[in-house]
Amino acid sequence: MKHYTEADLLETYYTEPGQSLPVMMHLADCADCAARYERLDQKIRALGACEHKPRSFWARGRDAIAGAFAKWRRG
Ligand SMILES: [Zn+2]
User: Fold this and answer.
1) pLDDT-derived band of residue 58, with 50, 70 and 90 as boundaries?
2) 20-32, pLDDT tens digit by residue?
3) Is residue 36 part of a domain?
């Protein structure tokens, strides 16, 4: 299985939802990468507090991956 580095996830953070979908699907199945992404998300939010705020990747991708992610959270 291919895993995503923090750099990969950072790039994904700013891509369009359609392009990031494969990554989101991976995050739904991979707790390691999901945890890495959550840490990155928190860092970006902290940085964004004093600059323009990028629209949340979770918010943009939520509709597309809601089903898969809910499934992952239920285990
Ligand atoms: Zn992974």
Assistant:
1) low
2) 888 989 999 999 9
3) yes
* Cα 6 from chain centre: 11
Q: How far is the CA of 45 from the centre of ligand 1 (A)?
A: 22
Residue 1 lies in a domain: no
Could you list the residue range(s) of the whole structural domain that residue 45 is in?
6-74
Query: Is residue 54 included in any domain, yes or no?
Result: yes
Q: Is residue 41 in some structural domain?
A: yes
Separation between Cα atoms, residue 37 and residue 17, nearest integer Å: 15
Q: Determine the Cα–Cα distance for residues 12 and 21; give it in Å rounded to an integer.
A: 9
CA of 32 to the centre of ligand 1 (A): 6
Tokens found for residue 54? 């990028």
CA of 74 to the centre of ligand 1 (A): 18
